[in-house]
User: Fold this.
Amino acid sequence: MSTTGIVVDRGLEGVVVGSTLLSNVEGKEGRLTYRGYDIDDLAPNACFEEVVHLLLYGRLPSAKQLDELRKELGAHRMLPEPLINAMERVPKDAWPMDVLRTIVSGLAIFVPVDAHGAHVSDVHTAIELIAKVPTAVAMWDRIRRGLEPIEPRHDLSQAANFLYMCRGTEPSDVAEDAMDTYLVLLADHSFNASTFSARVTASTKADLYAAVTSAIATLEGEAHGGAASAVGRVLLEVGKPERAEAYVREVLARGERIMGMGHREYKVRDPRARHLEAVAKKLSELHDPKWYKIARALEDASNLVLREKKPDKSIYANVDFYTAPLFYSLGFPGDEFTPIFACGRIAGWSAHVLEQLADNRLIRPQATYSGPPVHAFEPIERRTGNGAASHPSS
Ligand code: COA
Assistant:
């Protein structure tokens, strides 16, 4: 409640701020659908490119449409040369999300603008961005390790090309499938914070590049996509499954949160966690089972201790939880988990920006004012400098 008596919804919880045809989160049931298709059907049956088509064009593609989309994505993967050169000059210890945000913002510089400084923002611009974001992440993955960046291949899927560009060899079918499932599951999630941010930016009539740059900036924090990298740090800290319960108790005793647990919308286990757990488990059986085992023990321990300490809250594993063992098994360092999130969510961000622009009105909410009442301006010679005004009458 504010001083004016108006109820303020902190964090806009439960506030409906718009309408979308793109995806629906049913938090109580634990269901996520893209344009009416359940992710439980899409994750095992559709590839990321089919989901991109679904989000951008409103329907799943025919074989011919899928082929055309694949060709268009493949043709636009390469980054402008000056951006690759710029990445090569970045300090090797730069945070990968900072690099991604800067490179995506930089993409706009190489595209013509109209008289108002805006770029064309249409479905083809969206496809270009969907093609280029993974290239930026993969190139930085290599450059920071002192390796030559690898040129994208246009004959590979989004998932396979991304892994190929990071590793220099074509991925196994299991690795490609795991990456593809991840991209499908992360493609869209209604009005999450980064998507909302993209829509707010687009609502000012800014273009797709500006809106996606806003979205990447908003993805970074631990309350959103940054949790994926944070879970990676937790798995390292926990180190072995037997330490999971002690770790959870220590974190909660310090009044902190378990990363990868809890969600604003889902009051049951995030439906994406189940699919990610399955692919993380499958990968771990082929490689090192350690990461999956620690994650599994951590989820069990979190459920046990949270039920005990916060029995009235519904806090369960979210999408970021099993991202960590999945990506460790694929050989990625923890600080790249959040940029890889962007490789999937770029599909949803782009589709939301196009939806916003198609029926746009400036998004401009209000706030209640809780500062001091109107008072006299103090000339500089009468100011005390410590915040307390020295009034002439006093
Ligand atoms: N660990 C421990 N307690 C948690 C928790 C977690 N991961 N997530 C929520 N809670 C608790 C809060 O401490 C709070 O309890 P309190 O009322 O006793 O203080 C209560 O649940 C509500 O938290 P609140 O921050 O109001 O909920 P929210 O809807 O704003 O939070 C998240 C949603 C995602 C920000 C929150 O669950 C969180 O911080 N999770 C960890 C980070 C994460 O995984 N983020 C990725 C989300 S996809």
Observations:
- Residues 19-223+336-358 form a domain with the Citrate Synthase; domain 1 fold (CATH 1.10.580.10).
